[in-house]
Each structure stands twice: as C-alpha cells, then as structure tokens.
Amino acid sequence: MLRAKLRNESSKILYMNIPIQEISRFPSPGMGVPTSFAFSPDGDRIAYLSQTTSGQRVLHVLDLHTQSDVLIVAASEQREQKESLDEELRRQRQRNLGLGVTHFAWIDENNILVQQNGNLYVVDDSYRNTRLLVNGQEYSIVDPKPSPIGDMVAFVCDGDIYVVPTIGGIPRKITEKENSKVTNGLSDYIAQEEMRRPSGFWWSLDGHNIAFTQVDESHIAAFNIAHSGKDETGDTTWESHRYPFVGGDNPKVKLGIVALDGVTRWLNTQTYEYIARVDWLEGNKLAVQCQNREQTCLDLLIFGQDMQLHKKLDLERSDYWINISDSYRYFGTDNMIWTSERDGWRHIYIYDFNYPEPRQITQGEWQVDEIISFDEKNDVLFFTGTKESPLQKHVYTIHLKTGVLKKLSIEPGIHNAVLSPRFDLFVNSHHSLTSCPSSTVRAINGESRSVTFHMERDERASQFTLNPPEMITIQTPSGETLYGAIYKPGDEFGEGPFPTIFSVYGGPHVQQVVNGWNMTCAMRAQYFRSQGYVVFVLDNRGSARRGFDFESKINRAMGTVEIEDQALGAKWLIQNKIADPERIGVYGWSYGGYVSLLCLMKYPELFKVAVSGAPVTSWDGYDTHYTERYMGTPVTNPNGYTNGDVRQYVSGMKGKLLLIHGLLDENVHFRHSARLINSLIESEKDHEILLFPNERHMPRRQSDRSYLEKRIASFFEKHL
Questions:
Q1: Who's near 576: CB < 8 A, 6+ residues apart?
Q2: Does 234 reside within a domain?
Q3: Rounded-to-integer distance, Cα 216 and Cα 69, Å
Q4: Helices (H), 202-285
Q5: How many domains does the chain have?
Q6: Is residue 480 part of a domain?
Q7: Sorting pLDDT into bands at 50, 70 and 90, what band is 295?
Q8: Inter-axis angle of helices 523-530 and 702-719, nearest 10
Q9: In which domain, by residue range, is 609 found?
Q10: In which band, very low, low, confident or very high, does the pLDDT at 92 lie, cut at 50, 70 and 90?
C-alpha cells in the first residue's frame, strides 16, 4: 500500500482511503449506467446497454407498455474480446473501451442485430431466441448495419463490403478491391480519428444500393509498428500503416454506389481533398459534404439518381478552419437544417437549396451542441446547447416558424436525450457535480414516466468520499474568463498551501470543466486529494464550447496560449495561498501530454514535476487533417512549427519528468517520445520512461491501467 506524508505535519502518516486500484477500474464510480438507448421503430420499446460487474456490456429491452425489462444478450463466457484489427482500431479511435456487446441496431419492430465477441447475431421477436447470423471466426466483421427495410445486413470484411439476408445465409461480397492497399467501405484513419466519420458505407433509403468510400493508400509510404512484446518473431509481429504525415500525401478517396448485384458506379468528387459526410435523401439522391485541403471551405454536393451532380451549395467559408459536425438534418425536397459558427457561435440555420443564404434560427453568446431530432410535421427541432451556462448542457425545442424556444430538461448539469420516433417521449440522461448519471423517460409535455432501467448495483459512489471540486474563474490579461476546478484535500491536512498537481488536456474540441459527475468521479484527482494534494483543472483558451473566437486563439500557434493560461492558473493558486510554489506538478495524456511537457519546460519556475502520456512532441510527426486544420503546413507556417516543437525547450527543463507511451500507438506514434528522448539525452536531462509494449494510444488492459496508476502516484509522491 502506498502512503503519503502530511506536508504540514511531517511526523504524521496518512494512509489512503481510496485504493489505488480504483483509479484504473472501468467504469468509474457511478458511471456504470445504461447507455446507447434506441427506441424501436414503432416507439413501443427501448433497447439499451447496461454493464455487469465484470465490465461486460449486455443488451436489454424495456417494454414501455408492460414495464417489463428483458435481458436479451447476456455476458459472454469468453474473457477475451475477439475482433479484427480493423474493428479494434476503429473502436480505439472512437475511444470505446467497452467489452461484451460492442454494437446493436433495430432491424425492425421485433428483431435486433447484435455484435458480440466478433460474431453477428439476430435476436428474434420473442427476445429469447438468439440466432448466429455471421461467424466472426470465418469473417472479420467491421461496422455491421441492417438495411432500412430490414431484409439485409451489410458489413466490411478484409476491405470489401459483404451483404447477408437477415433470415440467414452465406455472406456475399459485392465489391472487389484492386489490391491489399485499397479498401472498400472502410473509412480511413483520418476520417475515423479526425473527421469523426467512423463509417465508410451507407445504405440507400430503399435498401437497394450502398454508397461507399474506396480508399487507396498505395502511394503513401508505410509506417511500420513492431509488436516487440510478443514472444514470436516474423512477419506477423509487424503492423504496416499508411500514415498521412502533415504536409504529405493523403489517401485517395473515391465515392461510389454499389447495387446489391455488385455493379458499381462512381461519383465525381475528385476536386475535393476530403469527403466529410455522406447522406441519402428521398428520391435516391445523395448528399455529400466535401472539404478542401486547407479546411477553409465546406461544400454540399447533391447527386441525382443518374449519379450526376445536380446541385452545389457553398455551406461554409472561414479564414481559419471549419469544424465538421453531425448537427444537421435534411427535410422536404430542397431544405436542410444546418448548424454554423459563422457569427462566432454554433447556431441553427435553415438552408433552402434554391437560395444562396441561409436563415438564422438561434442566436446569442451560447452554442448549439447537437441536433437530436426533427419533427418535420410540426416544424419542431430538438437540440442540446449551452444557453444556461457553458458549464451545462440542456435539452431544448424550437419551433422553426415561430422561433419559440423551450427548455425540456430541468435539473442543473449535463443532459442528453434520445427521442422516440413518434416525438412524444424522450430518454433524458442527466448528471451533475452532485448527481450520479441517471436516465428517465419523459414526455415532451414535461411529464416524467415511472420507468426503471436495469443497472448493476455500484456502491463505490457512496463508499468513497467523492466530494465535487470547487468551481472558480480566472481572468486573462486580455479579458477572457477561464473556468477552473479545484480538488482540495480534507481539513486534516491543514489550511495550505498544498502540493498541487495540474490535470491538463488543453487542446481543441475538448472541455474538461463542466457541471458533471465525470468531474466528481475523476478517481485520479480524488486519490491525490485523499493524499493531501490539491488537484487543479483549467480550461485554457483553445478549448471547446466557448465560441469560435475563444477556440481559435490557437490558430497557427499551438503550444502558446494553452501554456500561458496554465501558468496563469499556477500563479493564481500561489497568490491565493492554495498551491505551494515549490511543489507544483502536472499530468496529461495525448494533447495533455504535450501541454504537460511544455509547462515543465517553458515555465520551470512554476512546474517542478510532469507526467506526460502519449504526447505529441513535434507537429511535423502528426497527421494531415488535424494538424493542418490548426497549424497549416511546415511550409506555410514554419515559425509555428518551430515554436510548437517541445524539443526547442528541453534546455530549459529543470524538473522531473516521467514519459509514458504505448509502443503500438498508431495515433501518436512512439516516435514522438523517442525523438524527445534523443533531445533529453543530448541535453543530459534526467527523465524516467514507462513503456507499454502491448498498448496503443490508451491502455485498455486492466492490469496495464492499474500498473500505470501506481507508477504515476509513486512518481509524484517521490518528487513533489
């Protein structure tokens, strides 16, 4: 058992009241709640996933009329998840650590498609008969989807699209890739990781055709990753990735439409670098959102049944970059509900394709987070947003003709919703700093239904002392408000100042500080608090949900304002006698690992210890779509790349560093850490290294996560 000394009473020893193993346990206390709610097509039932105490996700169906809850897919006896490399990587890029049922979808009102342990099953209308549809040992199944009419299921296997009747049969391949470096129906790395487009194929509304992307990576040099932790040797211990490094070649992506008989027709999207989104419209028309390489232009292309371009719409233009989202809906024959940041905040607009300019529906210094659903008959749109506070998320409706806005959610905190197909009910999922996640069924008129979703009992939320952090604000010299959260130790540790640890991310598209249970159940922070440390979280300029001006402060200048703001936070804590100025540390992962390194090296007078996990260390080693969005290329922005390179600041490092990386990381390659290690050695800077030979960007194995937390805790205990 680890132990820590009270810093103001050196003769007294305090033993931790939160076992360190709890930091790595998944899910965190109170977070093992039902997820992935999906109404049946008739709106009478709700399918959802719940989690067992063993960590597996199982599938339930709740009947809204009888209130009966049926477990239709139980936990598997197989301990190891069987999935193809393509599916493993796809789930990794979605940050999906769940085991058991990895995917399900309603086929029709009575049948459900389920993916578990690499196999595909169909659960029939009695919910008691589970039929094997496709054997995962025979087919490496990726991204299975039932057709809209429920007669077929499509999936990707070994880079081609297969279809199989839902009643059973032998899967049939309907595309034919040209070589091993070409895939059909599988989204490429940057689509999955950076564009948040995990899929590479889409069923037509009538179920007769499938639109798909063909990805050719043959012209991109291979980046090889060795499975150095394996006992065996040879070709099977290597992975070859065609990684699109910034400034270099991207995959060549074509968009095609294949009929179920295997006949493929190709669409002309070749003038664009990126295919961002693909949607089928009524009348077998296809809507395609395309981006230029600089990501300053987003166009909508409408192709007709003849596969010819019928209409082109200039959706977005920006002097900085355009954030791709899924918050849009097509309706009617020539209309689209769209969300845009053109006025500085993401708001709702309506496009009539016959007119050049959209009509703005919402406005103000708040943003629309997500479009949930659209009741076209009554002109009512359902969405979530930050109108109450940037630290909260609420569910709203707005009448598109009258503009009347109504808030459906009640309790302060974070709300998400899933609408029934009849638009009369919604599943409201809620959590806050003081409330564990919970889900209820509510009527649109505000009435709450007495519905209980199955959930395994988890006493950890009450077993441990999980007090929420204190929320604070800090003003930057230029007048921006920064939101922070402070986890202070108990009264037994005195009044301070305390040894302090920053928990950082700092990059775009992420917000850490919210009125949510995820902050209260942050077990690493709670553990260190129980050991007498202050833990501090600060959302710097460049982070999400604060408007585009706030986010775009990092434009062409990553590694600048983020670090300045974290240093400002450290000074604020010192001035308020919360942090001991000689004992401030920082930890972070991925972009947070990058920020941790720069805090240690650019502000050595403030930050004495850093733990950096899977960090980007030089932006010339990261991918095209992400890096060029914010930084341009090394040719167009050489100073930005130089100033954002961690290695430029190694000479200023004075504190202690623990560098952590998975050797199989195909996102932020171990190469980032290796190049930094070279600089640390050249500058004769002491550092420690923790490697995980069998892990990728995020440790998934429980044993690895547990060991990781022990090493982090002991490092801070030793040096802070």
A1: none
A2: no
A3: 46
A4: none
A5: 2
A6: yes
A7: very high
A8: 40
A9: 3-24+463-719
A10: low
